[in-house]
Design brief:
This protein is α+β, with helices and mostly antiparallel strands. The chain is built from four helices and nine strands, in the order βαββαββαββαββ. It folds into two domains: about 80 residues, 2-Layer Sandwich (Alpha-Beta Plaits), CATH 3.30.70; about 80 residues, Alpha-Beta Plaits. A hairpin with a 4-residue loop joins β2 and β3.
Length: about 190
């Protein structure tokens, strides 16, 4: 088998340049990782990220198959394309990991997050908070004479936008679940 030589100075767009070219732009990717539900698996997955200095922007974990003892870890991370590829490869090498899917590149997906927002205020601010909650279709799940707790489900951008609008109205505290995501379609 003859070795392929790449001519010095050859264009990176040449059909003979077999090395992948990666961008230097950081991208956000949503990874779905199916793992065996056993003690220590989450620590091993998180250890992969922390040990190499990768950041996790969102993390959700739940058992998805009680009889098969399988859990799904949804991770939103950010990095240059070559870092994302390294993460996926290294995740796939962890023994209790069954599957790694990059929902960002595999096709259309649906992402949702749940947020709880405690907003304290009186008078006009209280009325405005209720008006905005109605526009965003947020539910009031607790109320006192001084505060509300709103529940909002939607894309992470919607959760961010609601929080930004509630800050000047007396946003006291926010709790977020992290992203849950599924690929669209029958597969």
């Amino acid at each position: 088998m003859a070795a392929l030589k790449i001519k010095k100075g050859a264009s990176s767009h040449s059909a003979y340049n077999l090395r992948p070219t990666f961008s230097d732009v950081e991208e956000v990717h949503t990874l779905a990782v199916l793992v065996t539900n056993e003690p220590g698996v989450l620590a091993r997955v998180i250890g992969l990220f922390s040990g190499r200095g990768y950041n996790i922007e969102s993390l959700t974990v739940a058992e998805v198959d009680h009889t098969g003892h399988t859990s799904r870890i949804t991770i939103v991370t950010k990095g240059k394309p070559q870092i994302i590829e390294q993460i996926k490869t290294q995740l796939g090498r962890i023994v209790p990991v069954h599957e790694v899917h990059d929902l960002t590149v595999e096709g259309p997906s649906v992402e949702r997050e749940l947020g709880l927002f405690k907003v304290a205020g009186e008078g006009d601010k209280r009325v405005e908070a209720m008006r905005l909650a109605d526009i965003f279709r947020a539910n009031v799940v607790d109320t006192t004479l001084e505060s509300f707790v709103f529940e909002l489900t939607g894309a992470p951008e919607k959760i961010d936008a609601f929080a930004d609008l509630m800050r000047p109205l007396g946003l006291v505290e926010v709790a977020r679940t992290g992203v849950a995501a599924l690929a669209r379609g029958a597969h």
